Amino acid sequence: PILTLTGLAVDATQVYFVDTLAGSIGAVPIAGGPVTTLVTVDRLAPVLASDGTYLYFSTLLSTPDDPNITVQDGTIQRVSVQGGTPTVLASAMSEDVRALFSEPPNVVFGSDNSTGRVPIAGGAVSLYGTLGGPLAIAGGALFVASPMGVMRAAL
């Protein structure tokens, strides 16, 4: 089959991937083997993170050209690495999530115009700031690249 793999995450035993064409998250053993579809989701974004227990992913905003179709906000969700029914951690995301990191007790996210976090168990979204761009996490800090330089925030 043709796959359009756009997001990857790895744990000790599996490689997980987002197939945006199929709208699914799949897994394959690191040593090789059959591909398993873990979950199928509408409007799946090309970002993925894992903490070995859960996979964290995002859905895209829908911005239909047809005025009769309701615009749907994006979400951040989690699903067991074994698959199953996803749990919504954050809804009403007004921007598409471009990066996700599992940084217990939170999932850290970045979009075009903001960076923030939501508890792994779900709850209120807290913003680090209104700066978006490429993200990295190291040493208990969040780094955001922007036209103004690289910014640092404590996690």
Structure explained in plain terms:
By secondary structure, this protein is mostly beta strands. Helix content is 0%, strand content 57%. It has strands at residues 5-10, 14-19, 24-29, 36-40, 44-50, 54-59, 74-80, 87-93, 97-103, 106-111, 115-119, 126-129, 135-138, 141-146, 149-154. A hairpin with a 2-residue loop joins strand 9 and strand 10.
How would you summarize this macromolecular structure in one to three sentences?
The chain is mostly beta strands. The chain has strands spanning 5-10, 14-19, 24-29, 36-40, 44-50, 54-59, 74-80, 87-93, 97-103, 106-111, 115-119, 126-129, 135-138, 141-146, 149-154.
Please tally the β strands and state the result. 15
Q: What is the mean pLDDT?
A: 85
Instruction: Report the oligomer.
Output: single chain
Structural class: mainly beta
Q: What pattern of helices and strands is seen along the backbone?
A: EEEEEEEEEEEEEEE
Shape from CA axes?
A: globular
Low-pLDDT windows of residues = none
State the distance separating the first and last CA atoms: 41 Å
Largest pleated sheet: 4 strands, antiparallel
> What proportion strand?
over 45%
Radius of gyration: 16 Å
Q: How many H/I helical runs?
A: 0
Within the largest sheet, what's the order of strands?
1-2-3-4
Helix content: under 10%
